[in-house]
Amino acid sequence: MKLENGTAITSNRLRKHIATAMQVLSMSQNDRKQFSKFMGHTEKTHEEFYELPIDIYQTARVVKLLSMMEKGNPSEFEGKSLSEIQVNIDEYVDDNDKGWTTEEIKSLKEHFKSFISKGTYPCSSEIKEFGKSTNNTRSVAVIKSKIQHLIRLNLK
Fold this sequence. Notes:
Elements: H1 11-21, H2 29-39, H3 43-50, H4 54-71, H5 102-111, H6 113-118, H7 124-134, H8 140-155
């Protein structure tokens, strides 16, 4: 793996990143205990200092449901638990190496201002249309995530 800024990686940051990432996995109590020991801290320390904010955890857990709804085929997964459903996570990762530009954010705010002000979300087809009309290559999920962020900022 090639890092752009390798000096920014510290053992504490790596430890926090690993501990945070493992929370979205379905680990047993014993696995969490062993993991905490391996990381050099107690389970209590792990839970208190590395626990994901609830909104991030919930989003990670429901991305499978959102994926099913976006693709329009929830019946394909009838009778399956979330842990049995496989999702291509690459669809939900922003493959643009750059962050959002000021122009992109301005365009997004302008196009979806009524949704942002009401605290609601546009449907996937509206987001796709926005992407086409603005030549934005980001996925629907990434754009929806940015809208969610803008709604939160608007509520403050």
